[in-house]
């Protein structure tokens, strides 16, 4: 039985000594699982669609909530550190899009291979990186996940090959579509459509915004990317499609980024503050999950607040580490370029090991 118990101790003095009265306030048992109606996906070249009635357990809901809150708080802390000039260079934040990474991870395996572009902090976390490693990488410290030499755009974990700082470098997309379809490769192509390419809305940039149809001969799905359950079920459907030998599939996740394209972009010159606030108030992925859990008695307000407190502490501890951990020494700058030891000379250069700091 899962209960929240608050003990109230009250002592009253009497001639015979102190009498202690203990009262226990218990919450009703939490619902262990519930069924939810989710938005139907738009489909291209598919006879079936992902389920629209889905089950989520209490444990799953709490896990999704904690993960998305961690990602959100991590990005907000990164925003703060960047404005303090502790994080330098490029920095692309993921807040607003948390349901995409969390929903995808809920339906694939850790040994599946994942490639992404530069908005990669969230995936680095869901793929197994720690908040401490990610924050230290952002500040260029030795304890970073790429040893302080990658920064915001170059974070890696086992079976995770992102991020990548060059737009489109994940593959020449239409050639890749063609080869994947010819060879029936088990690939899920994902477009996280956050409605803006740098500073231009998709409506101004594309004659057709039906990105899920752009595989042409590859089947596609258009998914509510602000709903972690929609993303989870669509990914489950897509993974089953690929694993059954049917070849590739394309998913367009309709989502939204709260920050600008990067930290150098205030994000309000090409869209209004009111637009951002409307998305926050009506479609926020964390709020949507929280409301579902509370309205179905799958968690209490106090329990979710406790998670928030724990997450904030984890973020603050990670930020403390990321601002005190030493920077990597200069002599390590060019290490890890080659898988094995490089030749003594590479194109006439001196061995990297001779680099020394004179500062």
Automatic annotation (TrEMBL):
The protein's superkingdom reads Eukaryota
Q: Which InterPro entries match?
A: DH_E1, PDH_E1_Alpha_Subunit, THDP-binding
Q: Does the keyword DNA-binding apply?
A: no
GO BP term (any one): pyruvate decarboxylation to acetyl-CoA
Q: Which Gene3D superfamilies match?
A: 3.40.50.970
Residue ranges spanning the membrane: these are: none
Looking at the record, the residues that make up the Dehydrogenase E1 component domain are 169-330
GO MF annotations, alphabetized: pyruvate dehydrogenase (acetyl-transferring) activity
Cofactors required: thiamine diphosphate
Listed PANTHER family: PYRUVATE DEHYDROGENASE E1 COMPONENT SUBUNIT ALPHA (PTHR11516:SF60), PYRUVATE DEHYDROGENASE E1 COMPONENT, ALPHA SUBUNIT BACTERIAL AND ORGANELLAR (PTHR11516)
**Per its record, how is this protein called by name?**
Dehydrogenase E1 component domain-containing protein
